[in-house]
Amino acid sequence: MRRRVSRSSPNAVFLNIPYDDRFRRLYLAYIVGLVHLGLEPRVTLGIPGGDRRLDRIMDLIQGCRYSIHDLSRVELSRGEPRTPRFNMPFELGLTVAWSKQYPHRHTWFVCESRAYKLQRSLSDLGGTDPNIHGGTIEGVMRELCNAFVHPAQQMPTIPQMMRTLPSTI
């Protein structure tokens, strides 16, 4: 049975990022930065239950005009056996396939903390320039502004975005 392809929201951005405490500051930076840019962040934490998780993720990707895939935390687990988690690269792969099938409906961006890491970890994306945030809040906001350039509208500055972050981070 073929799934019905839903229309994507023109301002929706699928965020494929870690949700743990170590990434909390950058998670909040993505949310605040996207909102300042007039975009609607969407994350898998907000998907209601019911269908198979993979189907819900695909519906979320297909319902967004853009997606951001932060692969800076694709690393080996601490416990034995030391195993990498492949959820984020897998979701990036799903997104790349979707955007190849419907190129005018979805644009994706890859973020990393260090230059050249993507070329070593996922060489099939050769020719893709990742947005390098350096693992900092300011870096995330800078790269969001670089990714979502709108010459016709006034862009918020990084200091303006930084002022609206919760003081607890």
SSE diagram, text form:
Layout: E1 9-16, H1 24-36, E2 40-42, H2 53-62, E3 64-70, H3 87-101, E4 107-112, H4 117-121, E5 131-132, H5 137-147, H6 158-163
Parallel strand pairs: 1-2, 1-3, 3-4, 4-5
Helix pairs in contact: 1-5, 2-3
**Mean of all residue-level pLDDT scores:** 87
SSE run: EHEHEHEHEHH
Named at the architecture level, the CATH assignment is: 3-Layer(aba) Sandwich
CATH top level class name: Alpha Beta
What class, by secondary structure content?
A: alpha/beta
What is the fold-level CATH name, i.e. the topology? Rossmann fold
Can you count the helices?
A: 6
DSSP strand content: 15-25%
Provide the descriptors you would attach to this structure in a database record.
169 residues, alpha/beta, Rossmann fold, five-stranded parallel sheet
